[in-house]
Amino acid sequence: MSRSVAESIKNIYGPDVTVVGQTHVYGGDTNESCLYSLSNGERVFIKKNSGKPADFFTAEAEGLKAMESTGTIRTVHVLDTGREGDSLFLILEYVENGFKTSGFFEKFGRQLADMHRADPSAYVSDGRFGFLADNYIGATRQINSPRDTWIEFFRTRRLEVQFRMAWDCFDESDRSRIGKLLDRLDDLLTEPEHPSLIHGDLWGGNFMVGENGEPVLIDPAVYVGHAEADIAMTELFGGFSSDFYEAYKAEYPFAPGYSDRRDIYNLYHLLNHLNLFGGAYLGGVLRTVRGYTG
C-alpha cells in the first residue's frame, strides 16, 4: 500500500507527475470521492474513507480485479490502494460518462451472462461458493468463508448474518417465522448448474455508461455464488430495461422457478439496508419473510 496519494501517483505515472487539481464528486453514501487532475493531462478517480477497517478498499480492489480478469465486461480499472494519515484511499481509472445507445442494455445483458458463465474456481478455495476473503456490501462486512453448497452458503453467510444483526427489530412471532424460513431454504432454493462469479450488489447505481456507450461495472460486493442472485438484485430497485433480461436469457436462460426464488435473494439486500439505514426497510423484510412462511 502506498503511503500517500502523491506517492502513488508517482509510482503509477512517473516521478515527475504531480496532482494539479482536485474536485469533489458525488460517490455514494459511504466514501468521499474526488476527481484528481494530473500534470500529464490524465485524470484519476479517488475514493477516501477515514472510518473503515484497513481492508475496506483492498477488498473492493480485489473484487474489481476478479471481474475484470474474466475478460467479459468492462470493469473500472484499479490503479492502487493506500493509506494517507488516517485516511484509506483507492485510486481508479477515470471513466468519462457516455450516453446509452439503443443497444446498451442488450450488450449489458450478454456481457453479464458471459461473466456468470466464466470459470470462477480461482476465486474460492476449500469449497465451491464464497470468495478468497471477506469484503463489504456498502459499509457491512460480507462474510465469504467457503461452503460446498449454494443453499448452505446463502443460509449461513448471507441471511443468518444479517438476521442476527437485526434481531432486536423482530418480535417473537417474527423470529419464529424467520426460523421457519431458514429451515425451508432447501425446499425454496436450488443449486446452480455451476457456481458463478457475481457482482453481488448489482443495482442501477453500480454501473456506468462508458465514453463509448459501453456498460462499466463499479462498486462490487463480489463472491462466487448463484447467478440468479445478481439478476434478482437488478429487479429490486429497477433501472434495467427488458432488453437487458431478454439478452441475458438468450445467452444464459433462467432456471424454472426463478421468479419464486427472487424475493429470497433480495431479502439479503433488504436486511442489509435495514441494518445500515434503519426501520424504513423493516416492512419489506417482514413482508418477504411472511410471504414464504404464511
Description:
The chain contains nine helices and eleven strands. The protein is an alpha+beta fold and 294 residues long. β2 and β3 form a beta hairpin. The longest helix has 20 residues. The radius of gyration is 20 Å and the shape is globular. The model has no long low-confidence stretch (mean pLDDT 96).
Q: First CA to last CA: what distance?
A: 51 Å
Q: Largest sheet, if any?
A: 5 strands, antiparallel
Helical content (DSSP H or I, runs of 4+): 40-55%
The strands making up the biggest β-sheet line up spatially as 1-2-3-5-4
Number of strands: 11
- Mean pLDDT, as a whole number? 96
Instruction: Please give the radius of gyration in angstroms.
Output: 20 Å
Q: Give unreliable regions as ranges.
A: none
Q: Globular, elongated, flat, extended or rod-shaped: what is the shape?
A: globular
Oligomer: single chain
- How many helices? 9
Given helix and strand content, the structural type is: alpha+beta
Run of helices and strands: HEEEHEEHEEHHEEEEHHHH
Beta-strand content bin: 15-25%
Summary, kept brief:
By secondary structure, the protein is α+β, with helices and mostly antiparallel strands. It is built from nine helices and eleven strands. The strands form four sheets. The protein has a five-stranded antiparallel beta sheet, with helices on both faces. A two-stranded antiparallel sheet has the order 6-7. A two-stranded antiparallel sheet has the order 8-11.
